[in-house]
Amino acid sequence: MKLIIAEKPDQGSTLASQFKPKRHDGYLEIPPNEVFTDGAYVTWAVGHLCQLVSPEDYKPEWKKWSIDTLPMIPERFQYEVTRSKAKQFQVVKKLLKKPTVTEIIHAGDPALSL
Fold first, then answer.
1. Cα 97 to Cα 95: distance, rounded to the nearest angstrom
2. The pLDDT value given to residue 90
3. Which UniProt keywords apply (predicted)?
4. pLDDT given for residue 47 in this prediction
5. Nearest to residue 47, comparing CAs of 10, 75, 100?
6. pLDDT at 109
7. How far, in Å, CA of 89 to CA of 17, rounded?
8. Confidence (pLDDT) at 16
9. What is the pLDDT of residue 50?
């Protein structure tokens, strides 16, 4: 079964609309058909589900910005789930862990490099 991850709910709905999906909280389920013989799930990231932690979470002295503490470059960047998007993060995580999911399709905006 494929898991399609769109960037936003309306994009996910548009992608799944031709397959008469079953609605669930935070995702859509596409029944088996000619394109998705095992069916598929469509979910979304609602923009960015994670963000970099605040500078002071790395070092307390980075809470107040000053020329003495610049540049603020941690040894290893850390991320946290955006609080307002925690519920959708859990939906995506649950779908990713399903043993029936064998393929992930990125359906968000493409990253551009110049």
1. 5
2. 98
3. Isomerase
4. 80
5. 10
6. 75
7. 23
8. 97
9. 93
Is residue 71 reached through a cis peptide bond, with omega within 30 degrees of 0 on the bond before it? yes
Q: To which residue do tokens 């859990």 refer?
A: 90
Partners of 104 in beta bridges? 3
**Average pLDDT per block of 10 residues along the chain, 114 residues long:** 95 95 98 96 92 94 89 94 96 97 90 56
Domain segments of the chain as ranges: 2-107
Rounded distance, CA 15 to CA 105, Å?
A: 12
pTM for this structure? 0.83
- Other CB atoms within 10 Å distance of the CB of residue 59: 11
Long-range contacts of 49-55 (CB under 8 A, 24+ apart): 49/81, 49/82, 49/85, 49/88, 49/89, 49/92, 50/79, 50/80, 50/81, 50/82, 50/89, 51/79, 51/80, 51/82, 52/77, 52/78, 52/79, 52/80, 53/78, 53/79, 53/80
Q: Which CATH class is domain 2-107?
A: alpha beta
d(Cα 94, Cα 76) in Å, to the nearest integer? Answer: 27
Beta-bridge partners for 3: 41, 104
